[in-house]
Amino acid sequence: INQCGSTYILELPGTFTVLLLALQDALGFLPKELYPVLFKAAFMDKRTLSLQLLVNTWPFPHCERALIREKPNKYCIQMVISGVVTYLIKLLENRRVLKDALQINSYNALRLRCRDFRAEELSIASTVGLLEFLDPVGVRQVDLRFNNLGLSGLRVVLPHLTKFTNLASLKLPYSNVDVRRLTVGMEGSLQYFANQLSRLRCLKELNLGSSRLSGKLRLLLGDLQSPLESLELAFCYLLPNDLAYLSQSLHTPALKKLDLSGNNLSDCLLQPFQGLLMEAAPTLLHLDIMECRMMDTHLNVLLPAICRCSRLRYLGVFGNPISAKGLKNLLHKTVGLLDLKLVIYPYPVDCYGDDLPCPTRISCQETRNGACPLLLPLACQRSLSCTVLQWASADCLTCPGASQPERSTWESLADSTLSGCLCSLFGRD
């Protein structure tokens, strides 16, 4: 199959040549008996675009699986899968087809099993409608975000979640819950929320980020039947009694991931958080304390507890006003955490001028170069893993001194093996 503009020519040696104008439109008029021939020719000749177009309009219940097994090719298979996904998306836009495909005892040729369900910016009615389609036994994760549910919306949605008997992960960030100004009716809805959570007996992961839960953690988590392994409470306006409860709860000894980003750990939460870290240290793998207003003095108080987290793999301290001296101290103290693979650091406050919103190239270069002797042991101590250190700030994407600010880029490097100074990762010799 050769392409010239919108013209596609299929050449089958010793057989025939078919001229297809605007292939995507022409396929709908071809006899279906030609599809296997076209598919084989495109697959054998690695014409990936044509493969995807063929699969999009495939008229048979099965694809050419024998050919795929006999002559496997990574890029061709990727295009076949992409075509299947496109076909399914178009098919499932029909609500009746979707409902039928998700039924447990469906006789439809398309039978789906949903394990992870995620919905963004859906109305309450649409969310409930989709949840009703799902197999109560098969669903393991539900992620409802940016849906602005509020307590009244959660009261409608939660009964549909309790039917999922194997639900292990529930994520409800940005649900617009604010307990700081509760009315009498809202108190009842909050209690109902807690009661419904307690019915999720297999729950291991909970994300209530960006809900204002001040003073209500005991109410919400106190009746859960099993300990949580992941708890995300970013920007939840927590109070000291919340962290005091958490440090003594059944959840803390089992915690592997804890996210308290956006809570002010520089003031009255500092000591309760230190106690919480000490309790969670034996199991904690992932700790996020970004944008918590911590300065050098607060970080120094927490360092003994952080260093006790011997299994820690990820540490996020981005967005805290820490100096270069404070960062060097943190680097030095955490060298002993041999499992630590990814650390997200802020730009040191030394990099910021009095009237500059973003670090300057010169000051950042000097600070990075000064830290390198401390970074080197982190890279060289390990033979099978490494630590990737990300310098980041809220303005990184536009900062002229920033190097590779996107976290996803660095996460892709986290399993690499380094043999030299980390300056190479910042593009410097």
TrEMBL record:
Keywords annotated in UniProt: Cytoplasm, Leucine-rich repeat, Repeat
Localization (cell): Cytoplasm
GO terms under cellular component: cytoplasm
Pfam families, A to Z: LRR_6
The keyword Cytoplasm is annotated on this UniProt entry: yes
Key word DNA damage present: no
Cross-referenced InterPro entries: Leu-rich_rpt, LRR_dom_sf, LRRC14/PRAME
Similarity remark: Belongs to the PRAME family. LRRC14 subfamily.
Protein name: Leucine-rich repeat-containing protein 14
Organism field: Podarcis muralis (Wall lizard)
Gene that encodes it: LRRC14
